[in-house]
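Tokens for Reticulon-like protein. Go.
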Amino acid sequence: MSSDEQPQKVVVSSTGPSSAEPAELADSTAPSIPMSALLFGIGNFFFFLITCGDYTVVSLFAYLALALLFVAGVYANGTLLRAYLKKEKYENPFSAKLKNPFVLAEGDLKPHVDAFVGVVNDFLHLTRHAIYFTDTVFSVKIAVIVWFIAIVGGAFSGIVLLYGIFLAAFVWPRIYQEKQADIDRVYGIALAHLNQYYDLVISKLPLGKKKKEE
């Protein structure tokens, strides 16, 4: 009997986690799927109106604000008209919302402001070092990056770049989650080749040779 019981234990232990893990994964990701799909649809519709419609970003936001005001006005005045016809006491349907404070808490906002100020200060610090050529190699790096940005900006319009960033924000996390090992491996190989060519170029510069000797 012991030889018959052993395979049963192995089967139960092997099938248990595999059947439970997808359920836990589905439970953890299910609430975010409808919201992500809604935001993705709204974003695509937004870019579609800007690209194919006669809209700019400012005009589109202005029309959205007008639509919101129109819907809120119809709802509030419709409630007023219904109360008048039924001879009931009228109360603004948004009065309950007005009782709740709609302000930004300083404690919640301060960490984000501090992080933003820190990023701006770091950017200014690096920009100053690049412009003053305190480190020629670093300034050359910045020049190459700016040149690459100019090439990309000349090849694609601003709307295309914004849509690419928007699409990557939704697609990239999922792709990286499923193909993390392959992406890390390819990234490591590409980074190694890039560093190899970078060291080769820097070694040809006079300052690069001097730093290498030091």
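Residues 140 and 146 are 10 Å apart (CA to CA).
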